[in-house]
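Lab notebook: predicted structure, single chain.

Context: the supervisor wants predicted structures on file for every construct in the current expression panel, including those that have not yet been purified. This is the next one on the list. No modifications to the sequence; it matches the entry in the shared construct table.
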Amino acid sequence: MQIDALSRRLIDRFQHGMPLCAEPYRAMAEALGCSEGEVLACLQCLEHNGGLSRIGPVFEHSRAGASTLVALAVPERRLEAVAEQINRLPEVNHNYLREHTYNLWFVLTGPDRAHIDALLRTIAAQTGLKPLDLPMRAAYRIDLGFPIGEAS
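Prediction complete. Output recorded below exactly as produced.
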């Protein structure tokens, strides 16, 4: 995917935070020296071409509820069906296929640990598979962003 100059500037400037105001896209446009329409068109293009996965906050889950990393060992023939079942749960995010016996990995979030435990029981009952529950013990913060910079 080819990324144009405005997209590069937009990603570099805002991948670590958007303006917290009533009109964030307008504030982004002002910071970039373009129009709000150009910012929105740029974001739509990035999304359409697979260069943008989401726009939204990253929050400290322990302050807003509970979460856990979950893995399932899903037989290959059932993989698409089970992934679809899991994806229907609003508490699920970051669902990935991995090369391992435990091949489906996702994050569950909820208001408290009791809610997570109930979801794990529901998933086990619905899929017939035993979830591997891997709650976080400590967070080691890393910068997930990286500079896009100028095209080479």
